[in-house]
Design goal:
The complex is a heterodimer of chains A (177) and B (373). By secondary structure, chain A is α+β, with helices and mostly antiparallel strands. The chains are: A alpha+beta (177), B alpha/beta (373).
């Protein structure tokens, strides 16, 4: 099935990198580069794997799905310091203005960043002829996130470096008949 | 009146970014988290423009837009979609319902401001109800001219005024200047190389902060082609070289909306004097008439009951001036003000030629006019 999937590995990597950099450049004046790619399938990930970052660090995960010719979901896992930095830059605030306990504002900012990233990704898919609609972003907080196997045609995990800080995106896609 | 912008987005972050983008403009931002709240807020506030997301819970942007456009009292409100959804199908669907523009997230704040300013009049904060500057207040005039001698000439020509004349030689320097300080008026030489005058005109007009600054073109009278192009582009006025500074001063005063009443109305301790200039043409008469009611009322409020109409400098007494004086004298009578006329020999002689003014008594000097009251 994977051989017939209409998006190649290279295309997916380019789409993901473009989506991240388009949003990071425009909204945060930052760039990010892919440092590691993990190919996940049911054979290599029977029991799940840990995220390729410090598992114990508190993280924030944004999720947005897309439904259409191609259906999928994208997760963005970000360590809290980077999430805070991104929120400050987006809203033109100092960390003191936000406060460590203002989870709602940081959650909202990362949700919106995820929405923009998946939007850019999805719009590029549309340009390739795959029309999809997006779901509303949701946010999770926690640590020790792990990747569980799922029934999808294509799944890749990309670890990015952004000015010395790492974050991870997990892209899952399948083709709808 | 402040511009009202309604941002409808489930993301607080986007709503904060919208607020931040327009903080230097004279506008009020209203917020709604979804289509239902958006429609209610639109009905309550009647915003001048709506920035609308598509993907929202409760009621999405497409449904809200459809309902908005079917409501006779709200359908006129322009809508700009501000959304991460940019698929062709989506764009076509929304365009059919009626949106003015489409901004795809991620977006730069400048793009948002630029697109909104193309739909509504976006004014820098504090400009909506400006305190009108007076003719003797300092104003900043930017001259964009690659010939330093012309800049010097303009500085000398306005040396008698408190106006600050800033000269730059190129488009780039002019843009830098405008970023640091908003000039009250810009005069651009139409003979700048590489069509720079037209290019600069477009840059100034397309920037939300400078789009209302009056732009004058400066050209030699015979350069009809460059003048025609400038007029076609939309320059407010073309000034000819050699410059008639009296005319230019009047044109700047009008374009910048300066209160020029100080040129004509002087309030002393006990008197108000209305000084008519040498060239008392229709434009001057109109200007004086505009201020007359307010100034006489102001004089009465200040406890002044005597007015001198000083026509000693007037070079010729035409019907416009006579009408102005007739109107002024009637205003004085209505307000129970005492008045007297002062005029030179030409004015006195010419006044006898008109039925309306043949019986007027002019004093030789302002002092004698004062003494007569």
């Amino acid at each position: 099935m994977q051989q017939t999937f209409p998006i190649s590995d290279q295309e997916l990597e380019a789409l993901s990198s473009n989506a991240i950099n388009s949003v990071f450049n425009t909204m945060l004046d930052k760039t990010a580069v892919i440092k590691k790619v993990i190919k996940v399938d049911e054979q290599t990930c029977v029991e799940g794997i840990q995220l390729p970052v410090d598992a114990s660090a508190p993280m924030i995960a944004g999720t947005v799905g897309f439904i259409g010719n191609l259906t999928g979901i994208m997760y963005i896992f970000m360590e809290l310091p980077l999430a805070m930095e991104a929120t400050c830059k987006l809203l033109d605030l100092d960390e003191d203005d936000i406060g460590a306990e203002d989870h709602e504002l940081v959650n909202d900012a990362i949700g919106e960043l995820t929405n923009m990233i998946v939007g850019t990704f999805k719009n590029d898919l549309s340009n390739k002829g795959f029309e999809c609609r997006m779901t509303i972003p949701s946010i999770l907080r926690g640590s020790n996130f792990s990747i569980e196997p799922a029934e999808v045609a294509l799944r890749r995990i990309y670890k990015f470096d952004c000015g010395g800080r790492s974050f991870v995106i997990d892209v899952l896609m399948k083709e709808e008949n | 009146m402040r511009l009202k912008i309604l941002t409808v987005d489930d993301s607080k972050t986007v709503r904060i970014i919208v607020k931040k983008s327009f903080k230097s403009f004279d506008c009020e931002i209203f917020e709604a988290q979804n289509g239902v709240e958006g429609l209610a807020m639109a009905a309550k506030t009647t915003p001048d423009i709506i920035l609308l997301d598509i993907t929202m819970p409760v009621m999405d942007g497409v449904e809200m837009l459809t309902k908005l456009k079917s409501d006779p009292s709200l359908k006129h409100i322009p809508v700009i979609m501000l959304t991460a959804e940019a698929g062709r199908e989506n764009v076509m669907k929304i365009a059919k319902i009626g949106v003015r523009d489409y901004i795809v997230k991620p977006f730069k704040e400048e793009v948002l401001v630029d697109k909104v300013s193309r739909v509504v009049d976006l004014r820098p904060a504090g400009e909506a109800e400006p305190k009108q500057k007076k003719i003797d207040d300092p104003i900043d005039i930017l001259i964009v001219e690659d010939k330093p001698a012309i800049i010097e000439q303009i500085k000398k020509g306005f040396a008698h005024t408190p106006w600050v004349i800033n000269g730059v030689a190129s488009t780039g320097e002019a843009i830098d200047f405008c970023q640091k300080k908003l000039p009250d008026c810009i005069i651009i030489s139409l003979s700048l190389p590489d069509d720079a005058a037209i290019t600069l005109f477009r840059i100034v007009r397309s920037n939300a902060k400078t789009k209302y600054v009056p732009l004058f073109g400066l050209s030699v009278k015979t350069a009809s082609e460059e003048q025609a192009r400038a007029q076609q582009a939309g320059f407010s006025t073309i000034i000819h070289k050699p410059i008639d500074f009296e005319e230019l001063e009047a044109k700047i005063g009008k374009a910048v909306n300066l209160d020029t009443s100080g040129k004509y109305f002087v309030i002393d301790e006990d008197y108000m004097t209305v000084r008519l200039p040498k060239a008392c043409n229709a434009a001057v008469v109109n200007e004086v008439s505009t201020y007359l009611k307010d100034k006489t009322s102001q004089a009465v409020d200040a406890g002044i009951s005597k007015i001198i109409f000083d026509a000693q400098k007037v070079s010729a007494l035409n019907m416009d001036v006579i009408k102005l004086l007739l109107h002024s004298m009637k205003t004085c009578r209505d307000l129970s003000l005492n008045y007297a006329l002062a005029g030179n020999e030409v004015v006195r002689e010419e006044s006898k030629k008109f039925e309306e003014s043949k019986d007027w008594k002019f004093c030789d000097t302002v002092e004698s006019a004062r003494a007569s009251l």
